[in-house]
Amino acid sequence: MAGEQAPPTRIALVVNSASGSYSQEAVERLVAVLEGGQVDVAKTYQLPDDDVPGGKDLDDEGLDCLAVFAGDGTINLAIQALSGWDGALLPLPGGTMNLLCARLHGEDAGAEEIAARFAAGDFRRSCEPVVRNGTRISLVAIACGPGTHWYHVREAMRDVPEDGSLGDLANETRDAVGLSVNGPMVTCADPKLGREEGYPVIELEPHEDGLRIVAYTAQDFAGYAKQGLAILMRRFREGPHEVLGHARRVRIASLEEGGMDMSFDGEPASGDAAELFTLERCPVQLVATGT
Fold this sequence. Notes:
Distance between the termini: 4 Å
Protein name: Putative lipid kinase
Strand order of the largest sheet: 2-1-3-4-17-5
Keywords: Kinase, Transferase
Domain DAGKc: 6-136
GO molecular function: kinase activity
CATH class of the largest domain: Mainly Beta
Number of domains: 2
Pfam families: DAGK_cat
């Protein structure tokens, strides 16, 4: 497990009612675990009604730790808002995919279990490697290419109405397969790696030794369907893929002019036809409770 140390006695908490697994009952249980361990939740920021706090906001409250119980997108937003802050951020899984929390706390650790570890002092502070693209960062993975439309399928899955109608989900799935087959492929342009005809998705993962460059390699409809399921479930190695290599600077380019579909930690985004990515350190320390 992580190291034994005294946790802060007072922290702030960010929750997002729009996150994938939010409920008021879950927030109350989380706070009860923290306060039962003598960690006072002195200030709560409720998104989207409140803004994500900056370092000065927390300093003014006399707080040096911010817990964020939300999805990867909200956690990423909080990290960028706290860039350069001397305190630490505790990510707690409260979204759909919870990629960063799995990396820091373990695949199966829930928010209450993590909070209990933290309150018991079983944690460490970590300055994690990240991918930077201009003003944007990713803590788990950046993906480029038309296959990133599968993340829209994920959102449609989350928003299936109570009557069970699958119209939007079916449309997004059809579009994702179509774009994966016929959309503008992307290449690893610098360093020049992989096949010249490109790939539907190239993913960059930050590691200590560089950005791990991984390409999805599906060739037909069945392969794209399997690939999409792998993206949705974050079981990447179950989809057809190849590791192209590692580098500290990577330029990904579309084979066609115009923009390029992207995702940052599973959140859809867009970019230019060619984008530069670099390996850097997270701009704020993170609290990790995993081994």
